[in-house]
C-alpha cells in the first residue's frame, strides 16, 4: 500500500532541517570546547611561570640564609620602624642595590634577589639553648620570571 502523496510533499526537507539543527548544535559545542581548552592552556602556562618564580625565590632565600650563616657576617640593627618592617619594595624591586627607604641592600642571586635585615636580638627564640641570646635576621627573597611574574618569600633566621 502506498502513502498518500500529500503526506510525502509535506515531509520533504524535514530531514534536512533536523540535520542542520544538529550540525549547529555540534558546532556550538565544538567552539565552546576549543575556548575551554585555550583557557586551560593559559592557566597551565601561568601556573608554570608562577612555580618557576617561586623556585627562584626559594633558591635566593637559601642563598641569603647561607650568607647570614657565615661566622663573619655582620649587619647593623635596623634603626627605625620603617627599616624594621618587611621591605615594601619587594613587590617592585627589579635590580640589585640599596633601597634608601627600607635600608635593605638587594643582592642579585640567580633569577632573583634577596635582602637581609637585622631586626635585633632576643633570648626567647624557639629551638635555641635556654639563656642564649640570638640575633634575628629577616631574609626576604624575590623571584622574577617572564613578564614580571614574581614570588616573594621570607624567613626569620636566628643566629646564636
Q: How does this structure look, described?
A:
The chain has helices spanning 5-11, 14-69, 81-84, and strands at 97-98, 105-109, 112-122, 134-145, 149-159. The chain is α+β, with helices and mostly antiparallel strands. The chain has one domain (5-159). Strand 1 (97-98) and strand 2 (105-109) form a beta hairpin. The longest helix is centred in the N-terminal third of the chain and has 56 residues, at 14-69. The protein is rod-shaped and about 110 Å long.
Quick rundown:
The protein is α+β, with helices and mostly antiparallel strands.
Radius of gyration: 32 Å
Q: Residue share in helices?
A: 40-55%
Low-confidence region ranges: none
Biggest sheet: strand arrangement: 1-2-3-4-5
Kindly name the structural category.
alpha+beta
Strand content: 25-35%
- β-strand number: 5
The number of helical segments is 3
Mean pLDDT: 89
- How many distinct folded domains? 1
What is the distance, rounded to the nearest whole angstrom, between the alpha carbons of the first and last residues? 105 Å
What is the subunit organization of this protein? Answer: single chain
Shape: rod-shaped
Major sheet summary line? 5 strands, antiparallel
Helix/strand order, N-terminal first: HHHEEEEE
